[in-house]
Design goal:
Layout (H helix, E strand, L loop, with lengths): L1 H12 L29 H11 L10 H20 L4 E2 L4 E3 L2 E3 L3 E3 L5 E8 L8 H18 L3 E8 L10 E8 L2 H20 L6
Parallel strand pairs: 5-6
Antiparallel strand pairs: 1-4, 2-3, 4-5, 6-7
Helix pairs in contact: 2-4, 2-5, 4-5
């Protein structure tokens, strides 16, 4: 019909020769802390060393998958902060016993609560124990630094539970004892002493 002919005519008139070239990715340096962390020993640097000593090093993975995960975490932080106005504050960079911290958020409940956001490409049903260990050591260190005993851990599982490819978001409330936090903190200090003794890079 006339409408079809008009449609074809418009499509033909709008045709152009597409010229596409690849664009370089921005620098991935912000993912490894450069640009927004002060020089010194950060708690995640110490955890990296502890993992190496335990024989479970985390391989370098600052690639497209890491960038997507980083952006997902940042977007999730902003969403949570907007959806919970007046409940969350961002402590910024802290230092305790010469160790630097950058907690994601602090929940302003009686007693306070650390809030940490993570994103992983692992299935929620197959998350390795060493990854869970790493997250818990980090969160317990934040709790010690902020003198709180509870935390919220929000995780984006990009691949869901392994049964369906749909992403899954899970939140968990964690409660720690004073002894747990003290033992964890002593381990962090031992790692700090090890790094300082071996003159490893602290930037």
């Amino acid at each position: 019909g006339r409408g079809d002919r008009c449609g074809v005519g418009w499509r033909q008139a709008g045709k152009t020769q597409l010229i596409a070239t690849d664009l370089p990715l921005p620098s991935l340096d912000p993912l490894v802390g450069r640009g927004y962390r002060s020089p010194g020993l950060h708690v995640t640097t110490i955890i990296d060393a502890l993992e190496r000593l335990a024989g479970h090093p985390e391989p370098p993975h600052w690639d497209h998958a890491a960038l997507v995960g980083f952006l997902a975490e940042e977007a999730w932080k902003q969403y949570m902060r907007r959806s919970r106005p007046g409940e969350l504050i961002t402590p910024g960079e802290l230092e305790v016993d010469g160790v630097l911290f950058t907690p994601d958020d602090l929940l302003l409940t009686p007693g306070g609560s650390v809030v940490e956001y993570k994103c992983t490409w692992r299935s929620s049903n197959t998350l390795p124990e060493d990854v869970k260990w790493r997250w818990l050591v980090q969160i317990k260190a934040y709790c010690w630094a902020l003198r709180v005993y509870t935390a919220e851990l929000w995780v984006i599982y990009v691949r869901g539970d392994g049964k369906k490819p749909d992403p899954v978001i899970r939140g968990r409330r964690l409660l720690f004892s004073d002894q747990e936090l003290q033992v964890n903190w002593q381990m962090i200090l031992n790692g700090k002493e090890y790094l300082e003794g071996h003159h490893e890079n602290t930037d």
